Amino acid sequence: MRLRSRTADRLAGWLFVAPQLAGSAVFVFAPLCLVLWYSLHEWNVLAGSFEFVGAGNYEVLLSDPSLPSVLRATGIFSVGLVVFNLSLALLLAVLLNQRLRGLAVYRTLFFSPVVVSLVAWTIVWGFLLQSNGGVNGLLQAVGVEGPNWLRTGPTAMVSVIAVQVFKNVGLNMVLFLAALQGVPGELYEAAQLDGASAWTRFRRITVPMISPTILLTSIITVVGSLQVFAQIAVLTQGGPGTSTTVLVYYLYQQAFQFHHFGYGSTLAILLFVIVLALTLVQWRLRRKWVVHEQ
Amino acid sequence: MRMKTAFAVATAALLGLTACGADDTPKDTGPVSLRMTIWTANEAHLKLFNEIAAEYRAAHPDVTEIKFDSLPFDTYTTALTTQIAGGNQPDLAWILENSAPDFVSSGALVPLDDTLKKTPGYQFEDLGASPMKLWQSQGKLYAYPFSTSPFGVFVNNDLVKKAGRPTPAELIAAGNWTWDTALQTAAAVNAATGKAGLVVRDFDYKAWQNLASFWGGWGAQAWSTDGKTCGFDKSEMVEAMTTLHKAIFTDKALPGPGVSADFFAGDAAMTITQISRASLLKNQFGWDLVPLPQGRVGSYAVFGQAGIGVFKKGKHAAAAQEFLAFMTSPANSAKLAAYFPPPRTSQQTAETLAKTNPLLKPEQLQKVVVDGIAKGTVGPSHAGFAELSQTVRAGLDPLWQPQADVKAVLSGVCAKIAPQLAKQ
To answer: How far apart are the first and last CA of chain B?
Structure first.
């Protein structure tokens, strides 16, 4: 009797998780396995040929002359985005955590780009960043001759990072804001009585207390930064030269533009390994810099 | 146990997916629904296609639908190959000239000769050899070159006159319509009105193949006809690109990188494009269509091409071929000539083209289209064009700076594409 009820419980459990499991199987595990399978093949879409090449694509990966510059561009983009995004988000959250007039308006203002369509946002920025566009128009008004943002290597990279930061900084800001509001006020009062300066209070109380959120936002932002695609496709198409050709855009070029679906899948596996490794590293590091975690 | 179950579920899903993908055998029974991918979304073009399709369906009740699927031009080939990769290939597709070698040699397309030749009244022998060349392999035609459209120069005469310059028509009459005078006119318009001088349409400092209409005047080529030798470092190309660079950055005859200007909205004095774009003219300004200016090699012409292919793995390959034969019959070819200059020799006359091109004068059609097809060369194409084109684009990027060393940049392009050309 007891056995039967245990089986029934187990069955009920499986039934409850079944929809989620089915979704993950079809949309996550299956494509993941398929990509691994494709990466072992030379797949010519036009000719309809699909030949097993074993580790052939991985050998190509190791000797690909474009890969170092692609990884460099990906690294610069990710580091730039994470540093710029997290520090701006934290700054905005700290500022908006004060008692200010019109606080709700500011919060809405900074959060609103998050809900705007990514492509629409990027296209508008594409116009603004043209050499005769709005950004240079503003600079000209204050007597500065702006660069041709999207046409020279360094400014093109800065532009795509900035466009992405302004798009998503609101989300991290809200997460930080929620974390800041969870820090007990008496901690600050006690520190103040002990004569701690504002900077010391921020460093010794705020940062440790919101460290789980810092971990969360940094994982989300790092993973997101490695998956950037639309901004590059719309703003620079990987140029000028190959200065903004990041890994996902390179993968897209190889698979969908050059029809090397097998090699494109190999690049997808590389991306998967990088994301997994970085996430594991961050997860390990949490023991060091995340306070009050069990 | 749990792991095992999860693995079993994943495997089952995987097998299910692969099983779906494997079911792509051609079927030609029951009601037929045809789909053709195209890159135009122009209402006038679509209206004409739908009229031809409706006429075909009236005579073929088994064909329930003929759908023209407009994909964006910029990413057309990418979108098409993605559909093919997903097992969702169309029955028929437009193919751009630059990817013609890839499609023609792939084995994905049905040879069309037999169907077209046996269609009553088709007059296969009327199809010109020159327009067909790019679309043939080992004596078989793999796509029908429905459009062979020479590049011409559309002119905004109002802006040219405002700058106090003779119009291109006047320059032609005086025997002085050369790249030198054309660029002088463009620079003068920019200086006098602030509007753009000359716009190479769709180039945008990325789609470099559109520049073939310019460097053709110097006899330059991106690569040799056999596709094996790079042409960017040859003296005629260096001379052409030096002229272009000076025109952009010193004389301001062309809008610089990152500056947008639409001729058809009245923002530029001249634009190089094909006659199918005439439908964008709204008569807000006095305009003209003239041939490309004379270059160092005298008068020359460059044309773009588009073919229609039938996919072997499409569900209704036989029906698709029949529809293609109908769509490109002498009568329908004459209708399509309104926008797409046909490969039929008998229809490449100013009179035939004028009947369906009310916007253009017979003289314009004779000079730009008829003469253009006769003496022109097709724009760059190559096997593996997308990858090659991307390498060239990245290699040319440093050229679009005011201080660029033209010769060094062009030699750099050759160094970068040499391995890809050697692969052929």
So the answer is: 54
